[in-house]
TrEMBL record:
UniProt-recorded name of the protein: Initiator Replication protein
Top-level taxon of the source organism: Bacteria
UniProt-listed Pfam families: Rep3_C, Rep3_N
Residues annotated as domain Initiator Rep protein WH1: 7-142
A single GO BP: DNA replication initiation
Family: Belongs to the initiator RepB protein family.
DNA sequence: GCCCTTCCATTGTCGCGCGA
DNA sequence: TCGCGCGACAATGGAAGGGC
């Protein structure tokens, strides 16, 4: 078994779907399976490993087979406007071979777009966050929080909770049965913290009624993994990267929302080697990281371009071959845009740079100068066209 | 690995007191 | 008067341990 952390990636539609018919272990199993999907093809799994993941190690295979059968019957229910919804069968094949202790899976072609080949509105997180949860509502709220991680909050009305998740619990029971146990687990076992505030409807007489909840999300402050820290230091030994001031703890945390740790290490090392001209934007750095990941994917071997001890001085980069020329050489002085100008530039970036609105907004919050430089780079490119 | 039994946590429901 | 917050109680289902 490989030690690499499994990453779950899926469309945000899944985070907003209804899971009222799912049992907790069915949800865990589904997310575990999604974490391994890279292509639209049949998959075979070791049933013992899957039993372990859903916490059925000591259970009979007959019970596990029942879980498989139940999961096969589940559908993904996507809510549309005006109380309309669509349901999707998840699997075209989901079978358990009791003799060989294997599971065979093929995904329904209509379900594939929810787990493959999307370029916006998706969630990405380590499977281990979900594996630690043992409460169905904790998993549901974690998925919803992950889909809204860039907004730092999301809202659910009492009506929505009752309809979607809560078996028509009244407000006090929503607290007791859903929110308290779920948030306790999320805050204890996952990479995020969630606090909840109630929204009241003022009434003429009597006590005000709870009509909804605002969930505030924060990422746990964790020390950067040692290998990322090393990669940061390596990258910043390239003087062009250092001058850009685009790599620091804040920007790394931002990038970790889009890349896994392993990807970021590869990307930063690649950036160290390749960048040999001035730049100012995180967007540009992302392009280089993406190039590094693409190159790695194409070559199918690890990019282990530099070792710490190889780095003598920042000037080393000047002798690097295979240059990538920076597409922006703006100064970092802050300019203010009108909201119309900003919107126009943001739209241009969204259309041309392959980054998400949420990412931009997060950048704006965390690093104003990098954000402004990104807008300026887009403005210059627009002028050149 | 599987089955059976026991224990315990979770879930569903209801009632009561209190505060606005 | 209304509705939240809390607790009590019964039913249900899952986890754990032991025996085969």
């Amino acid at each position: 078994m490989e030690n690499k952390k499994k990453i779950v990636v899926h469309s945000n539609d899944i985070a907003y779907a209804e899971f009222d018919e799912f049992e907790m272990r069915e949800m865990k199993l589904l997310l575990s399976l999604i974490a391994t999907v890279t292509d639209d093809k049949p998959y075979f799994y070791d049933a013992k490993e899957m039993k372990r993941i859903v916490g059925m190690e000591s259970q009979a295979y007959s019970k596990f087979a029942k879980l498989i059968t139940n999961l096969q019957k589940q559908v993904l229910k996507i809510n549309l406007e005006d109380d309309k919804y669509k349901t999707y069968n998840i699997f075209s094949v989901l079978s358990f071979d009791p003799k060989n202790k294997t599971i065979e899976i093929e995904y329904n072609s209509k379900f594939i777009p929810f787990i493959l080949n999307f370029n916006k509105n998706f969630s990405k997180y380590y499977l281990e966050n979900v594996e630690g949860l043992n409460n169905k509502y904790a998993i549901i709220l974690y998925l919803r929080a992950r889909a809204n991680i860039f907004k730092y909050q999301f809202k659910l009305s009492v009506e929505e909770i009752q309809k979607k998740y809560g078996n028509n619990y009244k407000a006090s029971d929503i607290d007791k049965r859903i929110l308290v146990p779920a948030l306790t687990e999320i805050n204890k076992f996952t990479d995020i913290n969630i606090t909840v505030e109630k929204e009241y409807l003022a009434s003429g007489r009597g006590r005000s009624k709870v009509v909804g909840y605002v969930f505030k999300i924060s990422k746990k402050k964790k020390d950067l993994e040692e290998n990322i820290y090393k990669a940061m230091n390596i990258a910043n030994k390239n003087r062009f990267i250092l001058n850009s001031k685009t790599i620091n703890k804040e920007s790394i945390n931002l990038l970790l929302q889009e890349y896994s740790e392993e990807e970021l290490v590869v990307g930063l090392k690649y950036a160290y080697k390749k960048i040999n001209a001035n730049f100012k934007t995180l967007t540009y750095l992302k392009k280089v990281i993406n190039s590094g990941l693409e190159e790695k994917e194409n070559k199918k071997n690890d990019i282990d371009l530099v070792e710490d001890e190889e780095i003598v001085s920042a000037d080393l980069v000047e002798v690097m071959k295979d240059r990538v020329v920076a597409d922006d050489e703006q100064t970092s002085d802050i300019v203010e845009y009108t909201s119309e100008e900003e919107e126009r530039l943001v739209n241009y970036i969204l259309e041309n740079d392959g980054i998400t609105y949420d990412f931009l907004q997060n950048m704006k919050c965390k690093s104003k100068s990098v954000y402004i430089n990104t807008l300026r780079a887009a403005e210059n490119r627009m002028k050149e066209r």
